[in-house]
Task: inverse folding
């Protein structure tokens, strides 16, 4: 596989390739990549993913900001730290409210975008050493949070050790990432790519937390990124555990997600979806129908490369991210065009790669469908809508 967010300038460009495969550690119950890509190759000044491209995600982060404000409202001098603040989609709400905050972000371009919103950013990777520096400079944090970032960090033990060092004794650490149970139930295998080193479950997170003097006290399912889980952790001995934790852990055990057996049928389902999708696209293409796609997502790099869907089948991908427009998809070299181009073009079929934003996109593209355009979706099975 190529690097998922490394959109190329022209199809002849050299691309770094690595073996994408998952393993499970039956001791710590963590599902994880077997080969990791160097972080600097993924998160740098060319990082293509800007969080603020979806209005549903903007709403999600506004709610998260309200939740944090509830947590810190009693504190005389609160301090909130976000790991992986991207373009400031969350922390911008604390700029307006005057809540002391710090975003940690290693990708220079998105960090700059956050600064432009008035967010205080430290441009670096978070680890134990960074946590010590923050503590010396700003004091301990009442809330440490991260969305779609913890699963990106190979040296997760250093991050957890850093959190333990930086978090107030009664502070809250919460993070959310795509949930392994949703991935297995929906067969959403395109969540598996270079940036996602870990595929968390309550079972694996509680073990990881224990190792660092933290306790998983609450779990909350989130309807974003195709099904995510938010994990709340506190230092041990400060509070009880919610009944939701036991409920989620019981369901994970029932599906055997802590054992390799729990994943045996997964690869069969993946291959079935890829075959069905390729067949559908080939049939449409051979009957002379033009097919475009919607959303040059990082996860589509896995789907397109694994299923063998390239520029021979897909004319172009529509995307609203300025830095992606005019480039080509990693490995499969499909051109990326603006949303205006798509709206003028009205291709008869469009493969919905950004399926996690389905509701928002179907609402937005009402006119496209009224003009006869059809979306092709593929989870949990291939359909034309
Ligand atoms: P994500 O699935 O990782 O959030 O990436 C979504 C991609 O889809 C991102 O490149 C922006 C693009 N996109 C659109 O082009 N139009 C849309 O309406 C939405 C919601 C996303």
Result:
């Amino acid at each position: 596989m190529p690097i998922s967010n490394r959109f190329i300038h022209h199809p002849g460009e050299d691309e770094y390739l690595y073996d994408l495969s998952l393993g499970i550690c039956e001791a710590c119950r963590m599902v994880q990549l077997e080969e990791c890509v160097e972080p600097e190759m993924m998160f740098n000044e060319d990082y293509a993913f800007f969080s603020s491209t979806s209005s549903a995600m903007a709403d999600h982060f506004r709610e998260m900001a309200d939740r944090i404000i509830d947590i810190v409202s009693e504190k005389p001098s609160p301090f909130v730290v976000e790991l992986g603040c991207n373009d400031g989609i969350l922390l911008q709400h604390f700029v307006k409210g005057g809540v002391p905050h710090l975003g940690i972000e290693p990708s220079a371009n998105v960090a700059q975008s956050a600064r432009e919103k008035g967010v205080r950013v430290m441009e670096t990777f978070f680890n134990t050493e960074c946590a010590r520096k923050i503590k010396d400079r700003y004091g301990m944090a009442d809330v440490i949070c991260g969305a779609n970032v913890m699963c990106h960090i190979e040296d997760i033990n250093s991050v957890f050790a850093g959190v333990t060092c930086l978090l107030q004794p009664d502070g809250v650490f919460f993070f959310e990432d795509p949930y392994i149970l949703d991935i297995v139930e929906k067969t959403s295998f395109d969540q598996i790519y270079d940036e996602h080193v870990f595929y968390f479950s309550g079972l694996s997170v509680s073990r990881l937390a224990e190792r660092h003097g933290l306790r998983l006290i609450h779990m909350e399912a989130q309807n974003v990124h195709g099904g995510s889980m938010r994990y709340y952790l506190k230092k041990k001995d400060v509070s009880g555990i919610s009944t939701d934790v036991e409920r989620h852990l019981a369901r994970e055990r029932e599906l055997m997600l802590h054992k390799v057996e729990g994943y045996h049928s997964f690869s069969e389902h993946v291959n079935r979806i890829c075959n069905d999708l390729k067949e559908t696209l080939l049939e449409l293409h051979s009957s002379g129908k033009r097919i475009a796609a919607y959303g040059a997502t990082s996860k589509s790099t896995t789907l397109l490369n694994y299923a063998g869907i390239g520029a021979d089948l897909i004319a172009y991908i529509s995307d609203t991210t300025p830095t992606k427009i005019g480039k080509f998809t990693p490995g499969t070299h499909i051109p990326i065009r603006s949303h205006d181009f798509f709206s003028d073009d009205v291709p008869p079929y469009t493969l919905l790669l950004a399926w996690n934003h389905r509701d928002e996109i179907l609402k937005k593209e009402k006119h496209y469908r009224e003009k006869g355009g059809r979306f092709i979706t593929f989870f949990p099975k291939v359909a034309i809508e």
